[in-house]
Amino acid sequence: MPRATYRLQLHRDFPFSAAEAIVPYLHDLGISHVYASPITTAVAGSMHGYDVTDPTQVNPELGGEEGLRSLVAALRAHGMGLIIDIVPNHMGIAGGENPWWQDVLRHGQGSHYARFFDIDWSGKPLLPILGARLEDVLADGQITIARDGEDAELVVYGEHRVPIRPEDQADLPADGDVAGLRALLDRQHYLLGWWRTADDELNWRRFFTVSELAGLRVEDPQVFDETHALYFRLYAEGLVDGLRVDHVDGLSDPGTYCRTLRARLDAIERSADVPGGPAYLVVEKILGAGERLPTTWQVDGTSGYDFMEEVSAVLHDPAGEAPLTQLWHEFSGRDLTWHQEELLARQQLLSWSFDSQFRACAELFAELAASRPESRGWTLGMMRRAIERLLWVFPVYRTYRPRDNPPTQDAMLDRVRAAVIPYAPPGESGVVEQILDWLVEPSEGDPLLQAARRRFWQLSAPIAAKAVEDTGFYRYCRLLSRTDVGFDAGRFGQSAAEFHAGNAERAEHFPAAMLATATHDHKRGEDVRARLAVLSSVPELWRQEVTGWDWLAGGEGTGMHAADRYALWQTLFGAWPAGLAADDAAGKADFAERVNAWQQKALREAKLRSSWEAPDEAYEQLCADLVTALLTEERHAPLVGAIVTFVEKVEPAFRATALVQLGLRLTVPGMPDTYQGTEQEDFSLVDPDNRRPVDYAARAGGGHWKGDVLRRLLALRRDHAALFAGRSYVPVEATGPRADNVLAFRREGDGETLTFAFALHCSAAIIESDGAMPDRDWWGDTKLGDVLAADAFATAPIHLSA
């Protein structure tokens, strides 16, 4: 089992050989396992690996299996192991690089892989790759035939290669013969379509709204076997020690999948010269508020988004909620609460982007209703309205088969019932209730119920992801540190008692769950969030600063919407690079480029003043020009100076907050993961910024305020492995006037005891003390057992005692 992992993003510019070169450094840091992004063949040039095109071979761009074996040999020589990310839910199908998908297009339902993909074969699969209607593209001569290969293929826009049926290879139309070409298209096993028709007409499951990623039917035993054979072989040979399952909620039946995966791994006899099992197995799972991971899945836990949310929440001072909420509404002019923003986003996304999936779901439930005496006579319209309103308020990604429903399931369904009733049409609340019952009703022997429920599940998850994380989080900017992957933006913070409860539950059920504070998916780096969290303790100081900055920039005169400016000011402050001086022209220009990439994505994801589907390039350029001018033009020097001065002013408070975040990740129950490069400041923004190259030469020397603490705590975990691997977690009560500013607990195991104490919400006191930890007068006689808090936290926000 891993003691501590280090996440690496592998790609052609950072292949296995590059990872191998830093193995000694990672070992010295205290890491036990490299945790790698997907290693199977992906779309050429992929920077992340989740667009897998061939799951049966190791990606040659990374160095192939030879490079993998060399990396693992280096790891084994240092007593380390390897965990890999796998992608069972979907495959990349862009560019004609996926042999399975190409075979389906070539042979239709006669293809060996026809049932591998989640395609509705009642019609031909739609390929939404055209930039206009088919007739217009044909008339423009943008579809031609390439005859340079073994088989002729269609070429669309000179880049997309699409197969032609074998039956048509001997009788191809002449170049320029549009009427022959149209007849040829009509005979193919697919339909070429305008990309804008995908949301309404797509008849195969894709990943969220990405038409370049096609859903797999991994619930089919044959699909499971062929897509997982490589992983099982690599595990048997000792080349990998565990798996992280990507987007488990996209699968038809996550519980059965995880149990099958666990059983297959457990049945493998590994080579005698490698560590024995069991395999480490975690799942990427977004847990809603109050939701728990089912224990029946037989996994070691989640990949850590839930912990990232918990530790973020406890770092935020509850005193800042009301003033920062008021400031957001005043500044932005946007008066919706988070829950109102979420509802609006769900309503819009369901209407805009998921109509084809929604229609298919409603039709299946209408068929189910017609087959049951209790619902016979209900119409398709009733089904549509009921499902639509359920998806407006569904608080989790999905439900599961009855055996996998967690103990919080009934309470969650009660919440749904209470939330949906106000939106149910008069006289149709019974329809909503019935659908909720069907979602949790045993379905053995009822394939229609299983199919309808699967459609709902595979719609509710992407609606939650796209409406909440990829829309609402870009609209609701009260404090950006509370809007990240897996976060509950409606919750400003949480108490130490609530944090303790979450740790105790993890210790009991998933003591080896992964703990993350930074990932390849985060919207803001862990230190961006920590710096922004400081503002929760000094809301009035922040009001003064941000209104001053906005005035210096020109406010409404900039032409940029107030809400977008407020998000920008938070981003400039939160992500300001370490050591970037006000007079560093090159550094500021580089930062401006990064901020503009984030800003364009933020504007398009929010879908208010621009979007991916219809970019408002004029507004986007106005916003980009403002950022560039602010950071590069001399006339804005006073503004840049003010930002730098404020960043420096809060630096000690930020460092204290960042160290508490790091310390908690390394000491509470679970297995800590360190995202690449975050052993020093992580002021990254949303991808691809959070996947930039890491300067390992600069990190190898040590001597860094954050990296040194990480090394010390990883060494502590190595030296007391049994204690940290156990289920022990005992909250320690603080007393006195500042008891709420202390979070403490005890870990026990193997005859040892360690007590940890962390200072919370001290930012205001640190700032007022010119960077020093709060003095004795501030702490008063606050105690942690027999230890006076003023003495425990005299110089650092973390206290450890045996």
TrEMBL record:
It holds the Pfam family Alpha-amylase. GO terms for molecular function: (1,4)-alpha-D-glucan 1-alpha-D-glucosylmutase activity. Residues 16-376 form the Glycosyl hydrolase family 13 catalytic domain. InterPro entries: GH, GH13_cat_dom, Maltooligo_trehalose_synth_4, Trehalose_TreY. GO terms for biological process: alpha-glucan catabolic process; trehalose biosynthetic process. It comes from the Bacteria. Gene3D superfamilies: Glycosidases, Maltooligosyl trehalose synthase, domain 2, Maltooligosyl trehalose synthase, domain 3, Maltooligosyl trehalose synthase, domain 4. CDD domains: AmyAc_MTSase. PANTHER family: ALPHA-AMYLASE FAMILY MEMBER (PTHR10357), MALTOOLIGOSYL TREHALOSE SYNTHASE-RELATED (PTHR10357:SF216). This is Malto-oligosyltrehalose synthase. It comes from Croceibacterium mercuriale.
